[in-house]
């Protein structure tokens, strides 16, 4: 399983758990806000997007980082293609409690890259960026001094995953087709046999 599929599996599991906890009558608040973004923002809006919360430098960092979390593959585009950076920018205003952790985390990332490579994250090579993310992407093996970055990246990765797999591209990537009529063929012979009704089915056929 590659990184993209692993993130998808974790994200869908989290979303499913959220719906299970809230029941069928009402979607989770978070899902409702995601839906509000994708419902009202068009592709043209994304192309002309002006940042609502992030500085230009922060937004470029978000863009590059999001594309590393969900890169393009043979099935669909990357996080940027799906409009995830804009989604995260929107969510900073819609969920203000994310503002300080995300902005602080982006700053922390730049400080760490400055110490290691003498440049900010967005100016690093792909190899340098990967080396930096490897330090914070795996909580179980991260060094203690990397914990602020681990906490930030966990939150950021959740935002990227939530944005991507609630977007048009993400839904198509999953293969979701909406509610479809189900062609019920009756219980299988194995199922009937398991509950002791297989012979009864034959006798009434």
**Number of DSSP helices?**
11
Q: State the separation between the terminal residues, measured CA to CA.
A: 46 Å
Number of strands: 0
Question: Could you describe the largest sheet, including whether it forms a barrel?
Answer: none
Task: Give the domain tally.
Answer: 1
Q: How would you describe the shape?
A: globular
Mean pLDDT: 79
How much of the residues is beta strand, in percent?
A: under 5%
Please estimate the helix content.
Answer: 55-70%
The low-pLDDT segments are: 14-28
Topology (elements, then pairings):
Blueprint: H1 3-22, H2 29-40, H3 43-47, H4 56-69, H5 84-94, H6 99-117, H7 126-134, H8 147-164, H9 168-174, H10 189-194, H11 198-204
Task: Tell me what the structure shows.
With 205 residues, this protein is mainly alpha-helical. The protein has one domain. Helices cover 62% and strands 0% of the residues. The chain is built from 11 helices and no strands. The protein has helices at residues 3-22, 29-40, 43-47, 56-69, 84-94, 99-117, 126-134, 147-164, 168-174, 189-194, 198-204. The chain is globular, with a radius of gyration of 22 Å.
